[in-house]
UniProtKB/TrEMBL annotation:
Organism: Mucilaginibacter conchicola
GO biological process: siderophore transmembrane transport
Topology within the bilayer: Multi-pass membrane protein
Protein name, entry field: TonB-dependent receptor
UniProt xrefs under Pfam families: TonB_dep_Rec_b-barrel
InterPro entries: Beta-barrel_TonB, Beta-barrel_TonB_sf, Plug_dom_sf, TonB-dep_rcpt-like
């Protein structure tokens, strides 16, 4: 840590020296209100971005501006505050994982969302285990692109849409630039973000290092996080470029454990575990090739690998079982060690061309994808009786599996501009998957040998009509699918049966909306949506010929999610006086989601219970976020009020469980504050308060890591930061 502080002080000293030699800033210069200029940008993606088509789709653009979101704390609910329908699971208050879901999809590590950075996937194993262990520091993000379910044709398997974190680009007017921000806060929080960038000749570059640490709001919740990134781009001529990128994130987190309802009600800040630890480390090297053959035809080829691991050592027991010294052993009980090792390789090529058919302007994008992902899964190893982070074993792993999935795909989408105002965008995608699982489970007593090949043709289309110069109607229909994950076809023991004809989840998404701006005063995007989600995986109870009960891994039911998503924003000053140098903006982000099972049944304490009419787990009927933002040439400040309605933690809609692992997740209301002040052109200070009113709440129950039980949300916390960019 001493070396880190020395590095930070050196960077800041260099920045101050540079600034001392800078030209004096005049009063007229300060009148250039960059913050207000940013606010005129659209909230949705244009028809074409690079080699991607977004015409007729439900999209959002998020600009992670300080003073509007807690960037140093990687707080997801503030980052996505202006995106309706996002449900955020707060696994911890450190921002170490992005857990988002929408329209009835699972939030857990964004497992049903196609997560990307600079266009390539960051999910650990996109097909078989698509949890997102990689974490991008929000301070490094220049723009977030979010496309809802209609993104399946261009991006592949998902029902939750596609999120693409675009990392900042360097200032190409400089040979060398520095960006540094140091943040400290409650519970010994400290974050250090440092970046360099610039351009020399044909080479531009941007690199950052981020370190975040703290004790956490609860006891036994300490964390230590690091993130690294480098991008070197060579523009070899006016038509083509080649970029070399490398990303890494890693952290060690102490897990405070889950609580029962009684524990939570008595003291939400208490901890049930102190010997549990979690450590993911993900590396992503990438090469991106771009070439413009003509002004109307351009190619992008992205090749990337992902290798890393997620490891944990935990005392596995219900939240109502204390982790104390075993009087028989005169030591603590042994802990369980679980480790996954990931290795994948992916190449995607996309070609876009503009052409005319008579008087009809058209844009065609086509692409192919090949991915080979492998996971080596080691679970239920018997670890030590110690108290520190120790992955060593005293008895071998009870589960040892090699899991592999090969995915290949081809797609095409075309925008036909039938008139100057009306466009039609049909598309098709063909996916193939080969899944192989080999190894042993059940204390190495049961062999697993599973192979399955599947193919998926997907179709969709979008419509867009430009009502006025600044408003448009959009609509789309797109088929989607989610391949069953490895866990759905891996028996837990010799009595667990796997459906040999296990079906992948299939269905479709549709949207119809109206968006745009009315003058400079009112911005809006209101849409209705419908999602059909068939063949959700689960567990049934079956009997064999001898009358013995077995758990049966299969598809258990079909679900539907329908509702309304609405974003509105009113400019109270500049909207009525374009010459004003400040503004006050009020926004509201509202979503109603009616998510219900329409058929099927699932195991419930040894019997099969009907799912019909049950709410989709992790899906509140209502979410609403209202914010008030003040802007001028120096200050950006936002007060955010969030409301998330009641939801259930399981498909059985369990109301109460004594262990806390299932049951109702009550509605909660939170207030957050963000403030940023810029001065002397290159400097800024910011201040963030999360949960300003110190509400007692939680966002999810869970029956596995990092529980089981209730995971309390953090009480009131703050951070304050100082930054420089030269």
């Amino acid at each position: 840590m001493k070396h880190l502080y020395k590095t930070v002080l050196t960077v800041l000293a260099a920045a101050c020296a540079y600034q001392a030699n800078a030209q004096t800033i005049t009063k007229d210069t300060l009148k250039l209100d960059s913050v207000l200029i940013k606010e005129t940008r659209n909230k949705y993606l244009p028809e074409v971005v690079g080699q991607y088509l977004f015409s007729g789709k439900k999209t959002n653009i998020i600009y992670p501006d300080a003073g509007k979101a807690n960037l140093a704390g990687n707080n997801a609910r503030t980052l996505f505050a202006q995106t309706p329908g996002i449900n955020v699971w707060e696994m911890d208050g450190a921002g170490l994982q992005i857990n988002i879901g929408t329209r009835g999809t699972d939030m857990h590590r964004s497992i049903e969302t196609n997560m990307r950075q600079n266009g390539y996937n960051t999910n650990s194993d996109v097909v078989g285990y698509p949890e997102n262990h990689y974490n991008t520091p929000f301070q490094a993000i220049g723009e977030v692109q979010y496309v809802r379910g209609a993104s399946a044709l261009q991006f592949g398997s998902q029902f939750g849409g596609m999120v693409n974190f675009k990392i900042k680009q360097p200032d190409t007017t400089k040979a060398f630039g520095i960006e540094s921000e140091q943040t400290t806060g409650s519970n010994r929080f400290f974050n250090s973000y440092n970046a360099i960038g610039g351009k020399v000749g044909k080479v531009s570059y941007y690199a950052y290092f981020d370190a975040r640490s703290g004790n956490g709001w609860r006891p036994n919740a300490a964390f230590n996080y690091h993130a690294y990134y480098a991008n070197i781009k060579y523009q070899f001529n006016d038509k083509g470029s080649l970029s070399f990128q490398f990303s890494r994130s890693d952290y060690v987190q102490q897990i405070a454990g889950g609580l029962t309802d009684a524990m939570f009600n008595a003291n939400a800040r208490q901890s049930t575990r102190f010997r549990n630890f979690f450590m993911p480390a993900i590396n992503i090297p990438a090469i991106i090739f771009n070439y413009n053959f003509t002004p109307n035809t351009r190619l992008e080829i992205t090749t990337h690998a992902l290798f890393g691991e997620r490891s944990s050592v935990q005392y596995i027991a219900g939240s109502n079982v204390a982790d104390t010294v075993n009087k028989t052993l005169n030591t603590y009980n042994p802990r369980q060690v679980d480790r996954d090792h990931y290795k994948s390789f992916t190449t995607e090529a996309r070609l876009l061309t503009n052409y005319n058919i008579g008087s009809v302007r058209s844009t065609l994008t086509t692409g192919v994808r090949y991915a080979d992902g492998s996971t080596h899964r080691l679970q239920k190893g018997v670890g030590t009786t110690g108290t520190n982070f120790d992955l060593s074993l005293v008895k071998d792993y009870g589960i040892d599996l090699d899991l592999n999935a090969i995915n290949y795909a081809a797609f095409a989408e075309n925008i036909f501009h039938l008139t100057d105002k009306f466009s039609f965008t049909p598309g098709v995608r063909f996916e193939g998957i080969k899944t192989t699982i080999n190894g042993v489970v059940n204390n190495r007593s049961t062999n697993v040998d599973y192979k399955r090949d599947r193919t998926f043709p997907l179709f969709g289309a979008g419509l867009q009509y430009q009502v006025t110069g600044t408003t448009q109607i959009y609509g789309n229909f797109s088929q989607a699918y989610r391949p069953y994950i490895y866990a759905a076809v891996t028996p837990a023991d010799q009595l667990t049966l796997v459906d040999p004809n296990m079906k992948d989840s299939k269905g479709y998404n549709s949207d119809l909306g109206y968006r745009g701006k009315i003058g400079q005063a009112f911005t809006f995007d209101v849409n209705g949506f419908f999602v059909r989600y068939n063949n959700r995986a689960g567990t049934l109870t079956v009997q064999d010929a001898g009358g013995a009960n077995h758990l049966y891994l299969t598809t258990v039911g079909n679900a539907e999610a329908k509702g309304i998503e609405a974003y509105t924003e009113l400019s109270l000053i500049r909207g009525f006086n374009s010459q004003a140098t400040s503004d006050l903006r009020i926004f509201n982000t509202l979503a109603y989601t009616h998510g219900r099972y329409v058929s099927g049944s699932i195991n419930n304490n040894g019997t099969n219970a009907s799912l019909v009419g049950h709410k989709i787990e992790g899906t509140p009927d209502w979410t609403n976020r209202t914010g008030l933002t003040y802007l001028n040439g120096h200050i950006t400040s936002t007060v955010l009020f969030s409301y998330v309605g009641k939801q259930f933690s399981d498909a059985n809609n369990t109301v109460f469980n004594a262990t806390g692992a299932s049951g109702v997740v009550p509605a909660y209301k939170l207030v957050d504050l963000a403030f940023n002040y810029s001065f002397l052109k290159s400097y800024h200070v910011n201040f963030n308060v999360n949960n300003l009113t110190n509400q007692k709440y939680f966002t999810r129950r869970i029956n596995m890591y990092p529980g089981p039980g209730i995971l309390p949300g953090d009480g009131i916390s703050f951070n304050i930061g100082f930054g420089v960019k030269i």
